[in-house]
Amino acid sequence: MDSPSTAPAEPDASTAAIRLARLETDADLARWDAFVDRHPEATFFHRAGWKQVLEQGLGHRAPFLYAERDGELCGILPLGEIRSLLFGRALISTPFCVYGGAVADDPEVRGLLETEACRLAETAGVGHLELREREPHHPDWPGKALYATFRRAIDPDPERNLQQIPRKQRAMVRKGIKAGLSSRFDDGVDALYRVYSESVRNLGTPVFPRRYFRVLKQVFGDDCEVLLVEHQGALVSGVMSFRFRDEVLPYYGGGTQAARALKANDFMYWEVMRRACVEGVRTFDFGRSKRGTGAFDFKRNWGFEPEPLHYAYRLVRANELPDVNPLNPKYRLFIAAWKRLPLPLSQLIGPLLARNLG
């Protein structure tokens, strides 16, 4: 396999001083996160805690690579290895996350990290290596234009943020308010799991293990918050959001059958925005969605413009790019059947599939 175009042709004096290693010790965890905090290209999904989440929450190997020069961290590359009989094997930066890829102080360090990732992919015998990046670092690699992310600055004044939502969508939020919906934070994940698992079952998608959400909460603490929406004391929707710097990222959200009529999901995302802005959060990250889906249109209806994501691939044993997503026609019958499963059964067998979707 050819090495990435970003890798240096010949090591020079500065390259020889760069050491590559794997994230292992508590001291390295602290150094890793300090690098993430200071680097402008880093995201929440580059944080060291994802190694523990992938390993303990989902049971995957997570060879997180870092580079150091003269004892100082100068680059990182979080990786997760997915091994699935149904969906194949892959090395991804970062699986179950919208952003990933190498973050480095210079192109030379990036190239060394990516060259090592290619070597690991070959050694592991995976089908492909995937880097989920916001910027197009690899225009010469095979890629996909399937996903877009939605990000926007928010105002310190909640009323101004409400007015910035287009009229029709703003009306949905106001309907939720008039319906008497209320929101509250929850320290646990069990209530969220009830509504989230029902929501993804209704979409025909397997749900993640409950353990995964518990590990997320345990690892990221206050930077992983759960907001629940209730109507007359009954739970109707919920969302897990991530905090990073001055950003909030509502990530895992869903609602019950009653949520649609009550406009509970509209109210829920508004509450995330409203609560965050008064706490000093200045960026609302609505996450990624696939083009041509209802979620993509929903976010545009909120006044967010799509920003293309650049997912780059290096094929190792695979002959073509992976296509594991609900838009693939070959999964149509599976999705239709999954929607009809009793909820307890979907909660039982769903995690066995979802942990391998990446």
UniProtKB/TrEMBL annotation:
InterPro entries: Acyl_CoA_acyltransferase, BioF2-like_GNAT_dom, PEP-CTERM_FemAB-rel, PG_Glycine_Bridge_Synth
Cross-referenced Pfam families: Acetyltransf_6 (PF13480)
BioF2-like acetyltransferase domain mapped to chain residues: 167-300
Cited NCBIfam families: pepcterm_femAB
Record protein name field: Peptidoglycan bridge formation protein FemAB
Species of provenance: Marichromatium purpuratum 984
Organism lineage: Bacteria, Pseudomonadati, Pseudomonadota, Gammaproteobacteria, Chromatiales
